[in-house]
Amino acid sequence: MTSGLSLEKTAVDFANSDAYFDYVCSHLEYGKPDKWKYGGVNYTLLTMIIERVTSKSYEDVVSEDILAKSSFPHTKFSTSRDSNPLLSHGYSKADRTKAVDVKYANLLKEKGTGNMSMDTLDLYHFYSELISGRFISKEMLSQMWQMKTQPYTYDYKGGVYHKGNGVLYGHGFWGQYEPTMYLSADAQTCVILMSNSKDKPTYAPLAKSLFESLSDSFR
C-alpha cells in the first residue's frame, strides 16, 4: 500500500490464475507514492512470489502452513460456489429477492485478497491464533505490523487497520458482501459483522458501536 504499484481494474474475464498473472505482469504500473493507497495488486504479487519460491500453489501453501495448524471447519477457497455450497448469496439493495453472486472470473482477480470464505467463528479464531504466535512468531508479526511515519502516516499494515490501544479493525467490500471486524489487543473482545447486502451508509459504524459497548479499548 506504500509500494507505488498499481493495476487498473479490468473487465476482462480470465480462464485461470495463470492468465490473470500474465495480465498483471504486463499491465503493472509504478508511480512514486506520496500517500497511502490501497492496492490489491500488492497481495496478488505476493501470491505469485509464494508460488515461485515454493513451487506450490498459493492454495496449497495456505492450507498446509495455516489451515492445517489449527481448526477451520468453515473456511474454504471460493473459486466457485460449487466448491462451497454453504456460501451465502449476495443481494442488492434495489431488489432483496434477487441474488447477485460474484462471478468466477472476478474470484480469480481476488487471489490473495478475497478468494476465501469463512464464518465468523473461523475468522475470530484465525486472528486469535495469529496474535498468539501460532502461525508466525510474535517477533515476526511485530515486524510485519511495524509502521513507518515518513514521508506520510497511515494505520493500515499487514491486512488490518491498527487503531488506538492495539485494537485491530478489518473492513472491506466485495461484490455485495461487507465484512467488518473489531478485535481487542488481547483477542478477548471481538465484534464481527458480516453483511451480504451492500448498503449505504455501511454497517461499519454499527460494528464499532457494538465493540465500544463491550470494550474499554476506545474509552
UniProtKB/TrEMBL annotation:
Keyword Membrane: yes
InterPro entries: AmpC-like, Beta-lactam-related, Beta-lactam/transpept-like
Beta-lactamase-related domain sequence ranges: 1-204
Record keywords: Membrane
Predominant location category: membrane
Subcellular location: Membrane
Domain of life (superkingdom): Bacteria
Example of a GO cellular component annotation carried by this entry: membrane
Any Pfam family matching the protein: Beta-lactamase
PANTHER family, per database record: D-ALANYL-D-ALANINE-CARBOXYPEPTIDASE/ENDOPEPTIDASE AMPH (PTHR46825), PENICILLIN-BINDING PROTEIN 4 (PTHR46825:SF11)
Protein name in UniProt: Penicillin-binding protein
Organism: Brochothrix campestris FSL F6-1037
